[in-house]
Fold:
Amino acid sequence: MNLVFINGSPRTTKSNTGKLMDRFLRGFQETAGNTFDQEYLFKHRKYFGQLVEKFAAAENVIIGFPLYVDAMPGSVKEFIEALEPLTGRKNLPALGFVVQCGFPETAHLRFVARYCEKLARRLGCQPLGSILKGGCEGLDVQPDFLKAKYFSSFYAIGAHFGKTGNFDETLLKKLAHPEHLKAENMLQLIPFINQGLWDAQMEKNNVLDKSFDRPLLP
Amino acid sequence: MKILILNGNPSEKGKEIDGYIERLAGGIKNAGHTVQVFTLRDMKITPCLGCFDCWVKTPGLCSIKDDAVEIAKTFITADHVIFCSPLLMGFVSSVLKNAMDRKLPLIHPHLEEIEGEVHHKKRYDKYPLLSFLLEKEEGTDEEDLSIVTDIFRRESINLRSALGFVHVTDTPVKEMLNELGIH
Structure:
């Protein structure tokens, strides 16, 4: 089986999307004969022609991106617009998505996932569905046990996809947990993220006292 | 009332939304309100790079110095913002989406609970009401409109605002003015 993974993160090689999909791709390669190509969408922004051709010729495509203002980043939308001429063409690839966000709950991603599913149908691609995961900002500073959990889930989803050509619903559901947070977990998690992730970076940059600045007011 | 209209039509040819916006802006002005129209295709708006400098290095300020700064300034002092775009592949144009992504400096990285979900804290006291004007494309159906409306509602929560209306250009301009509270 052949797969083209289009990494739509504007952070390109330094993206959380890429770190997670790296495990998926390792799992995917478990099945002998499977091959993949990874493309960084942001690097094609000046001219999408080559990437569109690659999309059209692929057997399977997964487009990955971080959630930006509740949807795809504008640069990913640029590529989606470049795909329009392919609409309805025969032998288009099966199309799936991977979307992650910093919000700890996966529920934030369900809305854009509906768009992704409809987009696959609009193009005439067999929809593979979406791999969704909240809580992915600052992967590097997250506790190792959490990262290990995310990574093993992505590996398992990739391995299953490599064998069957489908995303396994049970594995997707396991990965998506927590869909929502319980009140007590929220109380614990919010200060952990606010101080541990954000204030720590502001402190390092000597701007913690400017945290709530409003520089755009007239 | 101060109204900001962001025209996200990527091309001046072949769409009716530009003419619609002109009539809408004229109606707002005639009623004695302030309206500013930004035609995004004529402006330089680089995509958000996800660097988070606007949260952790220069709080409230984007690292990219282009026309999105002027838009953000006008946005935060407006009472109502109308995002306008033809639907392209079932969503607003990339031109508009890039401008929306650059609103990140307007909110704060800290999270707080809002109605059982985690969202970002406000940076400013007041945010404008957000509305959308769309032009249908070939094949636009109820499902498309429901998908984008639900995403717009989510965006309004995360930009610490509320969703005003979502209309297509089939709606008479007069009706739009009524909904804006302009008679």
Summary: The longest helix of chain B spans residues 142-158. Chain B has a mean pLDDT of 96. The two ends of chain B are 13 Å apart (CA to CA).
